[in-house]
Design a protein that fits this description.
Chains A, B: Keywords: DNA-binding. Two copies of one chain form a homodimer. With 223 residues, chain A is mainly alpha-helical. Chain A has two domains: 43 residues, Homeodomain-like (Arc Repressor Mutant, subunit A), CATH 1.10.10; 137 residues, Tetracycline Repressor, domain 2 (Orthogonal Bundle), CATH 1.10.357. Chain A is elongated, with a radius of gyration of 22 Å.
Amino acid sequence: MRDLLVAAAFDLFTEHGYENTTIDDIVRLAGVGRRSFFRYFPSKEDVVFPDHERALADMVGYLDQDHPGQDAVTVACGAARVVMRMYAENPAFSVRRYALTRKVPALKAYEISVVWRYERALAGYLERRFAALPDGGARAHAVAAGVVAAHNYGLRSWLRSGGSGEVAASVDPALDLVRRTWRDPEDTVVLITRADTPLWQVVQRVETALRAPDQDRPGPARD
Amino acid sequence: MRDLLVAAAFDLFTEHGYENTTIDDIVRLAGVGRRSFFRYFPSKEDVVFPDHERALADMVGYLDQDHPGQDAVTVACGAARVVMRMYAENPAFSVRRYALTRKVPALKAYEISVVWRYERALAGYLERRFAALPDGGARAHAVAAGVVAAHNYGLRSWLRSGGSGEVAASVDPALDLVRRTWRDPEDTVVLITRADTPLWQVVQRVETALRAPDQDRPGPARD
């Protein structure tokens, strides 16, 4: 029923335009009553973004889990990928919605407010994780905004390409840039060695010092 | 006339609530006609944010200027301070609006869309500045979002304090965190010295190596 309403709505939006389509038109094409529509969607905007409430809940659920060995910024990037996967579930629908959202200012405004809710959820999580830092609040908000912006940048590239290929191939490099940039700045390795140290010994010491960065590197192969 | 309309609107919003106040109420209290209202403000929301169009234009003007010796992230932080000064011009009004915006979802949504326009202007500037970098696009969007989030974080702290003290004292440390974090990562100084080097000599070499960081450090004293 829910999927039927979304499909009917998108067919009408595509054919007649979003503004020219009424909720009555949608329920008529879907063959259901008005009350059914409002059982699933509070407004016409909501039928365009049917999965965001679930994605937001999934993201919050992800943040509430334990992520042993992962720093807070890495967890925030992982949470952004929860949303990314929602887009990846149905590339054709995501691309169609992207085309619609770019054309209709009301939907663009709705989308911006949805993005803001994701960002707020991330900032809340990071504020708790950074509570002990003197600049924890500002850091939490700047990281959350950076993660969301990087995710959206990668996502838009993928949507503009028509949703071809893996969305992660667009999103992961952008998220990784934010992750590397915002990781604990004290996390720097300085290696001081005599010039006549054998290379194998230097490599060994570097390896020990690097605290297994591969373990928390994001990537589709590990998710 | 414009100020009169804003003052009348805020008096009514405070007394009767935003939703319960009509444009007719506002023009009646201000003693002007409806057409005068619409000459200045396209909608009721706009009267709550009378200076954002100007601040956005000022910010774009700032970004278009030359900023010799400043890296792109520092210029973006300077552009955010253009908006900050708009809030600082009239602390009482800014605090009053903040209280109103927190209560009225329609105004919150409007504010989010305004913030998004600032962020887009910054991202556009940074994309041009980072055009030669392989990760320039993602970097531009992550930095722009971080600058805006840091600015808003500092601004909110100041507004919550009732607008007492210098707004820059709240905003500058947050912006500076973003600036330091996102500056060219190759911009690192490694000083290698013998353990018996006199301190004054080390200090001198550090001073030379640091490329005068004070020149582009943000701060109210220099603006």
